[in-house]
Specification:
Length: 347
């Protein structure tokens, strides 16, 4: 049962063609974070997560951790509430994940565990800065049992960014002077950075390295030039250039400085946006959501609706069905994750 549950916790890149790209733009102090999500299923929801929710980590068979969400957030979820692929909280912290083959999470120890998707939600719930995210490694670990191999690019409202990887059972971080470019694709940051130097560049073809190099070049050109393109628009330009054709399902731009999010999807190419200024993160009932592919355009804050347990379960079922060609998820695993919805309560 545990294996079935953890198998559904990420659908990112089982084949090399399924990949993701992330980066941070800092243009004259305006911070903009871009992200492409590439996979066979484009199903999903935009979720508004309230502050004040009490939660216990979803890790059958491992030591769990309980917490109350300090901050509200907006996330993009393919497997229901509490299991985001990425998002931004009301303090401007952004956390996004990507596939990284070769990831090795820590072995079980005295720390409590979370699964690899709920690690993202935990950070959005509890942290306002890069430093706070990194400090959680002393408190909790990602459950390594059958976990999908991931690494993360995170950024905060101060302009700091960091990559977080788990290699040889330890957290590996690049930040500050060690983070030459705030860009991440589907190779380790160190190996990706070597591609920028002709003397250390790999001769083996790599889609991940190509996207990393292209994003770095485009970022450098923009931040050192005098382009009149607005940072949000330029972020969408980069995402378009590093897209993976039919596999790029979501393109998301977080305007950290202005607490706004813009996104387009394969299911709806109209750019939509949502501003944190229009959201209420008080814990006063069911969280609100909108289908990420709904036929909308422009500001969608007024289109949010309460999410109930049956709707949440349907999102999980649809994502599982659309991903069936690359991942088989048993009915009992889908049901268990759906039932987890009812355990999340306001304090």
């Amino acid at each position: 049962m545990k294996k079935l549950l953890t198998l559904l916790l990420l659908l990112a890149s089982i084949a090399p063609g399924f990949a993701c790209s992330t980066f941070l733009i800092n243009r004259n102090g305006q911070l903009v974070f871009g992200r492409n999500y590439d996979w066979v299923s484009g199903n999903g929801i935009l979720m508004v997560n309230s502050a004040g929710l009490m939660k216990t980590s979803f890790v059958p068979g491992s030591k769990s951790i309980s917490w109350m969400a300090r901050y509200g957030s907006v996330s993009f979820n393919q497997f229901g509430k509490e299991m985001p692929h990425g998002g931004m909280n009301e303090k401007g912290l952004v956390v996004e994940l990507m596939w990284l083959q070769g990831t090795s999470y820590p072995a079980a120890d005295q720390r409590a565990a979370v699964n690899e998707l709920q690690w993202v939600q935990y950070q959005l719930d509890n942290c306002a800065s890069i430093e706070e995210v990194l400090a959680t490694d002393k408190l909790l670990r990602i459950d390594r049992n059958n976990a999908a191999p991931l690494h993360f690019l995170i950024a905060d409202a101060s302009g700091k960014a960091a990559t977080v990887e788990f290699l040889d059972g330890k957290m590996v971080v690049h930040k500050g002077d060690d983070l030459r470019f705030p860009v991440l694709t589907n190779s380790t940051y160190e190996s990706s950075l070597r591609q920028l130097d002709p003397s250390t560049r790999s001769k083996e073809p790599s889609n991940s390295f190509d996207r990393f190099t292209q994003a770095c070049n485009l970022l450098q050109q923009y931040q050192s030039g005098d382009s009149k393109i607005a940072p949000v628009d330029y972020a969408f330009t980069i995402l378009n250039k590093v897209s993976q054709s039919q596999y790029t399902k979501w393109s998301i731009v977080y305007d950290i400085s202005n607490k706004k999010i813009g996104f387009i999807t394969q299911g709806n190419a109209q750019r939509r946006s949502i501003s944190f200024a229009d959201l209420d993160f008080k814990c006063n009932g069911a969280g609100k959501f909108v289908d990420i592919n709904a036929a909308l355009q422009g500001d969608i804050a007024g289109k949010l609706a309460p999410l109930n347990a049956e709707q949440n379960l349907q999102v999980i079922r649809q994502s599982a069905a659309q991903s069936r060609t690359h991942l088989q998820i048993e009915t009992e695993a889908i049901q268990a994750l759906g039932e987890y919805f009812s355990t999340i309560k306001c304090q």
